[in-house]
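Exercise 7b. C-alpha cells:
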C-alpha cells in the first residue's frame, strides 16, 4: 500500500519558532531582572528605615546618662547618646553609642554641651551595628527631581552624586560624615533626607518632624 503523505515543520518554520521563543525569553529575562532590581532597592530602603528606628530606640533605651562605678561604693554619671553615621562614599552606615567618659562635654572650649570631644580619644565609643548597602544601590536621588516626601516643588541638585542632607560633623564618631544624633527621647537636632537609588528608581527616608521618620518612593514626577 502506498504511504500517506505525513505533514511536518519545514526548516523555515522551525527557525521562525526558535526566533520567536528567543525573543519572548529575552523579554521575560529583562523584565524579571528589572523586577529583581526594583525589589532590591525597596528592601534596602525598608532595611535602612528599620535601622534608623533601631538607633532611635536604642537612644531612648539607654537614656541621657550612664551610671559608672567610681570605686569605694561611689558612682558617677556620664552623659551619653547615640549617633547614626552615614558614609556616602563607601555606601555604608553605622550606629554608635557615645559616652562622655572624661566628663568634659560642654566644658572645654572645643566642645558643645551634649557633643563628643573634638580631636581627642578620651571619650568612649561603642559600635551598635554596621551595615552596607546592597550591590547596585547607592546614597543618591537618582531620577528624582524634587525634595523627598514633601511634595514641594523645590528641585534637587543633579550635580550632587550622594544626597544625604543631614549635617556633616567633624567630631567622632561622625568623622566628617553625615550624622544623626538622637537624644533620650528619640528626637534629633536637625531635619533631613536620606536618598537611595539604583539609578532607575529612588526611595527616600525623610524626617519632616524631629524624631519622626517616614519612607516614600519616587513615582516619576512626585513622591508617594
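Sequence design result:
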Amino acid at each position: 500500500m502506498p504511504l500517506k503523505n505525513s505533514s511536518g515543520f519545514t526548516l523555515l518554520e522551525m527557525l521562525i519558532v526558535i526566533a520567536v521563543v528567543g525573543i519572548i525569553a529575552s523579554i521575560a529575562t529583562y523584565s524579571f531582572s528589572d523586577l529583581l532590581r526594583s525589589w532590591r532597592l525597596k528592601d534596602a530602603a525598608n532595611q535602612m528605615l528599620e535601622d534608623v528606628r533601631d538607633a532611635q530606640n536604642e537612644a531612648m533605651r539607654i537614656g541621657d546618662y550612664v551610671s559608672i562605678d567610681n570605686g569605694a561604693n561611689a558612682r558617677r554619671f556620664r552623659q551619653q547618646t547615640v549617633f547614626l553615621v552615614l558614609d556616602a562614599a563607601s555606601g555604608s552606615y553605622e550606629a554608635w553609642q557615645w559616652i562622655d567618659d572624661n566628663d568634659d562635654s560642654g566644658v572645654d572650649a572645643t566642645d558643645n554641651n551634649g557633643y563628643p570631644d573634638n580631636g581627642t580619644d578620651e571619650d568612649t565609643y561603642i559600635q551598635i551595628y554596621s551595615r552596607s548597602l546592597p550591590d547596585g544601590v547607592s546614597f543618591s536621588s537618582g531620577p528624582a527631581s524634587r525634595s523627598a516626601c514633601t511634595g514641594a516643588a523645590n528641585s534637587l541638585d543633579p550635580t550632587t552624586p550622594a544626597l544625604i542632607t543631614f549635617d556633616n560633623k567633624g567630631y567622632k564618631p561622625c568623622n566628617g560624615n553625615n550624622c544623626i544624633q538622637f537624644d533620650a527621647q528619640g528626637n534629633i537636632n536637625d531635619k533631613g533626607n536620606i536618598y537611595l537609588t539604583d539609578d532607575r528608581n529612588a526611595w527616600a527616608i525623610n524626617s519632616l518632624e524631629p524624631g519622626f521618620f517616614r519612607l516614600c518612593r519616587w513615582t516619576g514626577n512626585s513622591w508617594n
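Instructor comment: The chain has one domain: 17-217. Strands lie at 65-71, 74-87, 92-99, 124-132, 178-182, 193-197, 202-209, 212-217.
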